[in-house]
Amino acid sequence: MSNATPWIDPELVAMGEAMKQRGLASLSPATSPLPECRAMLDRIGVFLNEQSLPLARERNLSITGPHGMIPCRLYLPDGIKQPPVMVYAHGGSFALGTLNAWDTMLRELVRQSGVAIVSVAYRLAPEHRFPIGFDEVFATIRYVAVEGASLGLDPKCMAAGGDSAGANLALSAALALRDTGRSPLSFLLLVYGVYAATGNTDSWERFGTGTYGLSSAQLRWVWEHYLASPADANDWRVAPLSASMHDLPRVHSLVGTLDPLRDDSSALACRLAEAGVANELKLYEGLTHGFIRYGQFIGTARRAVSDCAAVLAKALMQGR
What we know:
Elements: H1 10-21, H2 34-48, E1 57-65, E2 68-76, E3 85-89, H3 103-113, E4 116-120, H4 132-147, E5 158-163, H5 165-180, E6 187-191, H6 202-207, H7 216-226, E7 250-256, H8 262-274, E8 279-284, H9 299-317
Parallel strand pairs: 3-4, 3-5, 5-6, 6-7, 7-8
Antiparallel strand pairs: 1-2, 2-4
């Protein structure tokens, strides 16, 4: 492991300064009250959405789930009849995040790919602990697979995706759907996901101090407040790296080089390759956890969204 100071994208640094001038700074629930963390994330979402133009067709949905109604948001591309669809789970340590806070990135992904997106507002921990978030993402995918045509979608061309905790939920749901023998998914888009409950990797040791966003203390907080019991850490729906990866659909994953979760993505890529699953992992230099939503400020983040849109379109649009 190198001790050299890593290169940080100067646009990321400039964005941090711009946020400070607005009184914005990401808070960790390990060191700040959870309501304050949620309120700050909402304020940051408003900041990131300032220049975002809504799509001509987007609307809120309410889907029946195993724990009550699940709020979702449907984003539809212009000029495409019955587009393919991706069900997307936002990040936020299983405890933070709203539909609004991911608007900008998801709208741009829809515009560039021609693929519709159903964004899931799964119930958050610690009020709703594992497996509730997993259950709701799983239920939303199954609902869209069955009822997608009534929403103007083509459920025969379907993906799942997410970032951070949401990538964990998307991958775990895909594994569960595979095990039913009738998975509707043909592609997974996984953005800097957390796939193990340990945090004992080289990337956590190097980048988990809090200097680069996430901290080891926050990771401990996540598992203490997401899991219903310590034994859940061994459940593959919590730690999908412990599951067999056979017969999953093609996977595209990405992570910043300064992300403590970088080694989770690398380990997943190795496990997928060993299982014969087509996959690619893209690293984005000088970027930290959470960068996919920062396209308004960071050119590499914009490129990452464009890269995701291209692979999503290739996976779901070709041959229609």
